[in-house]
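Query structure, 262 tokens:
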């Protein structure tokens, strides 16, 4: 199961039934869960914590040192959840003393040439298409889809079930359940297709649509829109998730509906 042309540090912790192809390099402080496949020419550096039944394709570099001038050699990790697939030439850097770890959740697909920088936290069931790039300290919720060549600014937050169109530059926070597009990044409707695929009811989708109509379509400032929603809509898990995300935004929320040509 381990090819003789691979180099594995004798203190690395490799579980049963792990397949390691030729020319892989695995450093000392590494843990790999059972059933994982490591393709040829993968480099797994100190601090990597890789779950069960993952697939890591040729050329990927996992847990490389942060590309951050403030990094001072502190002991940190890069953690990858079970059943996650990392495609060719993906780079995932370990954390710094800000969060001490970089995290990719379970059941994710990180496609070729994508980069996840230090201290990012990515939820479960996410899909990052080719050449998606996350700067440092980014937080991504569950079931987020980034189309190809999306670039996300440091410290940005992206809410669960959001969809970001290809080639987007994401400089502001993107709340949950929406589609984001255009330049500058703006609200482009709710992610109704993704929500239906994941079992949201028509009533829940209608609730999300109505909330974002108030927040983003009716040309109100966010403070006034939140006030209206709290007065007119009963508290639900969906309502509170949206409002809490907006209230806790650090970089500010993306623009509202914009009907200019894309």
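Result returned for the query:
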């Amino acid at each position: 199961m381990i090819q003789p042309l691979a180099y594995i540090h004798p203190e690395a912790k490799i579980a049963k039934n792990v397949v390691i192809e030729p020319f892989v390099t695995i450093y000392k402080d590494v843990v790999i869960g059972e059933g994982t496949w490591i393709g040829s020419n993968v480099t797994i550096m100190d601090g990597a914590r890789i779950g069960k039944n993952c697939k890591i394709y040729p050329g990927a570099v996992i847990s490389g040192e942060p590309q951050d001038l403030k990094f001072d050699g502190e002991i940190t990790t890069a953690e990858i959840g079970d059943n996650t697939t990392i495609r060719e030439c993906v780079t995932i850097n370990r954390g710094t003393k800000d969060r001490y770890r970089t995290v990719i959740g379970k059941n994710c697909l990180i496609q070729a040439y994508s980069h996840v920088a230090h201290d990012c936290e990515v939820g479960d069931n996410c899909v990052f298409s080719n050449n998606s790039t996350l700067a440092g300290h980014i937080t991504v919720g569950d079931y987020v889809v980034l189309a190809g060549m999306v670039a996300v600014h440091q410290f940005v937050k992206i809410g669960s079930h959001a969809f970001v169109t290809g080639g987007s530059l994401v400089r502001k926070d993107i709340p949950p359940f929406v589609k984001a597009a255009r330049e500058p990044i703006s609200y482009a409707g709710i992610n109704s297709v993704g929500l239906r695929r994941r079992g949201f009811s028509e009533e829940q989708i209608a609730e999300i649509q109505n909330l974002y109509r108030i927040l983003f379509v009716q040309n109100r400032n966010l403070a006034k829109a939140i006030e209206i929603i709290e007065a007119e809509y009963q508290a639900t898990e969906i309502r509170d998730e949206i409002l809490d995300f907006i209230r806790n935004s650090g970089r500010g929320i993306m623009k509202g509906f914009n009907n200019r040509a894309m």
